Amino acid sequence: MSAVVIVGAQWGDEGKGKIVDFYTERADWVIRYGGGPNAGHTLVVGDEKIVVRLLPSGILREGTRCVLGQGMVIDPNVLIAEIDDLKKRGRNGIEERLLISDRAHLILPYHITVDCLREAKAAAENAIGTTKKGIGPTYEDKARRTGIRTGDLRDPKRLRERIALALEAWAPVIQALGGTVPDLDSIVEPLLRQSERIVPLLSSVSLLVDNALRDGAHVLFEGAQGTLLDIDHGTYPFVTSSSAVSGGAAIGAGVGPNRIRNIIGITKAYSTRVGAGPFPTELDDAYGMHLREVGAEFGSVTGRPRRTGWLDLPALRYAARVDGFDGLAVTKLDVLTGIEKLKVCVGYDTPSGRTEEFPIDDIEVPGRVVPVYRDMNGWKESLASARRLEALPSAARVYLDFIAEKSGIPLYLVSVGPKRDETVILHNPLL
Ligand code: GDP
Ligand code: IMO
Ligand code: MG
Q1: Is 41 one of the annotated active-site residues of the chain?
Q2: Which pTM value belongs to this model?
Q3: Does 223 have pLDDT greater than 70?
Q4: Active-site option among 13, 28, 115, 141
């Protein structure tokens, strides 16, 4: 039996899609445990590029069961469009391999309305820069106990009653934001049509995954977003509304934490962030442009240019601690090619002195903490054809060794391009 969690160590977009797709060659099951269509996970297979939003990144592997766990928030429109898009691309057996937890929450039109109105109305310094997919309001409904779960689709009468209750709770909010409260039928009727596609996929995920683990299956838990966007451990309030950290896998898939055998953290060889919030190593110069352009750093969901900066090792050590990484996957190392002198953040100057710990509670206040950098040599050679560490230029190997040493976590994998085979594999916990 192996149960492996793959989780982003930064502010999302670390390359989870590529790495999950890579490791699922050996996985029987892949389970997305949190978030919703705010995620955009890119899979590049041959000449084809697919961005999955709700579907697990194992969906292109025909032998892998794919599961949407109960920690997720699911927009039925996005789900159905995603399934149909894959079918149009000639991918077969998608629904046969797909299971959806009957306890996951539904994103409904009023959640999206509230998310958009709030972002539009917020003063510039308070806007989160959300993906406007209704994520926050849907998790609010879950916590307020007025959420609609996928399982409610099985009972149209109850579904209608639950939506009426939620609409009643949201109406004053929508009105105060200057929006129009939708009519109950306009929500329920399309949903009933969609439920014909969704209900057959519903299942008790916790039980199925438990049985699979008892049968010795290889199970991979796919994180969305990243540790620094986690509702508890991220740069609050500039975070998403779910448990993105590895611990979210136990809750969001319904397995005991002791079933998880291995946790892989993914970090880019530099940093990016989409949306607002603190980003101490952010670059606003030619280096930042290099990272954005060579790394094609534009949001996979919203197309927004991603903010870019140097690698932050205290932040990586922080993620290693709160996630409990066993191994590291470093992605996009190729993007650093051609930068003569690299910088890596190794510590912070804070009002209470210099520290190697990530000052998560201080970084919110502009100017309160100042990153301390170490210069490192860059390299000029293309990395795209490297398949072994020894094939990398020595400066790139020094860079990787430094990341492993400072984070205290061994390297499992290095990614040198978006394609499946552009990968240096050092350890596969699914073998
Ligand atoms: P995710 O949300 O963590 O799955 O990451 P995204 O898919 O949003 O963004 C990662 C982007 O980097 C995608 O466009 C990937 O195709 C691309 N990518 C992944 N690994 C590498 C790599 O090693 N090198 C390069 N150049 N691109 C990569
Ligand atoms: P993947 O899984 C990068 C960011 C948004 C915003 C904040 C809150 O592809 O790594 P939300 O819509 O969740 O309420 O927005 O979180 N965000 C992401 N940034 N990658 C993601 O997903 C993200 N999902 C949310 O930009 O700052
Ligand atoms: Mg992404």
Answers
A1: yes
A2: 0.97
A3: yes
A4: 13
